[in-house]
Write a structure and sequence with these properties.
30% helix; Protein N-acetyltransferase, RimJ/RimL family; GNAT_dom; alpha+beta; Acyl_CoA_acyltransferase; transferase; 8 strands; 6 helices
C-alpha cells in the first residue's frame, strides 16, 4: 500500500518504496541470493519495476527502499517491508528483505531492523512481530537468530518458490516483552549501547 512513513537512524534511511528505485535495485540481485523467494528474479529494471509495483500494491504491506547513509550519495542498497500488518490483532511481519552484497555484514540490516522494530513496538504498540524465511536460506535464518528473535517452528511444504520447488518456511518472532532485550542487543551491535 502507498504510505509516507520514513524511518531514519543508525546510518540508514527507510523511505517509501517506489518505481523510481527500480533502476538502483535491479543490479543488486542475482539468482543465488534470490533462491527461495516466491516471486520471479527481478534482475533487470523492467522486472524490478514490476516487483516494486506488486509490493506497493499489496494490501497490509508497507514497503521501503533502504538507503545506506554511511556511503557517499546515500545509495539505495535494498528493500524491506512490514507485511500482514494486522493492527487490531497487534501483529505484523517483517520481510521481503534483500540487500546488495556490498552491505552484507555491515550496519545496514541491524540498523534497519532496529528502526522497523522500534516503530512497530513503540509507535504502533504491537504485541508481536514475526519474521520468516526459506529453510534453505541459512544466511537469512542466522540473521534472524542473531537479531534475538525466537524460533517458533517450521511449516513444511508451506510455499512454492519462483522456480516451482516446494519450500519449508521457518518462523521466528519477537514479543513486546522481549523487545527491550532485542533492542539492547541491536544497539550494542551498532555501537550505540549505554
Amino acid at each position: 500500500m502507498e504510505h509516507d512513513l520514513v524511518l531514519t537512524g543508525h546510518g540508514v534511511r527507510l523511505e517509501p518504496l517506489g518505481v523510481q528505485h527500480a533502476a538502483a535495485l535491479a543490479p543488486l540481485v542475482d539468482a543465488e541470493m534470490w533462491r527461495g523467494m516466491t516471486s520471479p528474479l527481478p534482475d533487470d529494471e523492467a522486472a524490478m519495476t514490476a516487483h516494486v509495483e506488486r509490493l506497493v500494491a499489496t494490501p497490509a504491506m508497507v514497503a521501503f527502499a533502504v538507503r545506506d547513509e554511511h556511503t557517499d550519495g546515500s545509495p539505495v542498497v535494498g528493500v524491506t517491508t512490514y507485511y500482514d500488518v494486522a493492527s487490531a490483532m497487534g501483529r505484523c511481519e517483517i520481510g521481503n528483505t534483500f540487500y546488495g552484497r556490498a552491505v552484507w555484514g555491515t550496519h545496514v540490516n541491524p540498523a534497519a531492523k532496529l528502526l522497523l522494530l522500534t516503530h512497530a513496538f513503540e509507535d504502533w504498540g504491537l504485541a508481536r512481530v514475526a519474521l520468516r524465511g526459506d529453510a534453505r536460506n541459512a544466511r537469512s535464518l542466522a540473521a534472524m537468530r542473531k537479531l534475538g528473535a525466537r524460533y517458533e517452528g517450521t511449516l513444511r511444504d508451506h510455499r512454492v518458490s519462483a522456480d516451482g520447488t516446494r519450500q519449508d518456511t521457518v518462523y521466528f518472532s519477537i514479543l513486546a516483552a522481549e523487545w527491550p532485550t532485542v533492542r539492547d542487543g541491536l544497539l550494542a551491535r551498532l555501537g550505540d549501547a549505554g
